[in-house]
Amino acid sequence: MSNDYEIDDDGNRVLIGLSVAETREFLTLEEAIQGLLAPISSKEWKTANEVRWLALYQKHEARKLLFLTAKGTAH
After folding, report:
1. Closest Cα to residue 3, out of 58, 70, 73?
2. 75, pLDDT greater than 60
3. What pLDDT is stored for residue 50 in this prediction?
4. What are the pLDDT digits (tens) for 3-62?
5. Which of 19, 2, 23, 6 is nearest to 66 (CA)?
6. Residue 46 in 3-state DSSP?
7. Is 69 exposed, middle or buried (CB count within 10 Å of its CB: 0-12, 13-18, 19+)?
8. What pairs with residue 14 in β-bridges?
9. What's the confidence (pLDDT) of residue 5?
């Protein structure tokens, strides 16, 4: 997961594409729903925590792909 982080303009370690607050929220939500995650369609995500986690995850993954591609480290 070390490729998932970057240092923001203020020197904070954050998930790529997320702010400090979003990174904190993502990690808190991930812990709260841990064990509940399953490879299911996003349409099956029901609770507010699940939907919010998924939105942050998708934002992070989209930016991470752009970030890694720009750095020349994507495969």
Report:
1. 73
2. no
3. 85
4. 899 999 999 999 999 999 999 999 999 998 876 655 566 667 678 888 899 899 999 999
5. 6
6. coil
7. exposed
8. 6
9. 93
From the list 3, 56, 4, 59, the residue with the least C-alpha distance to 30 is 56
Cα 61 vs. chain centroid, distance in angstroms? 6
* Spatial contact of 53 and 24, defined as CB atoms under 8 Å apart: no
Q: Whole-angstrom Cα distance, residue 46 to residue 20?
A: 26
Backbone angles phi, psi at 34, to 5 degrees: -55, 140
Q: What are phi and psi of 70, to 5 degrees?
A: -65, -35
Q: Which long-range contacts (CB under 8 A, 24 or more apart) does 4-7 make?
A: 4/60, 4/64, 6/67
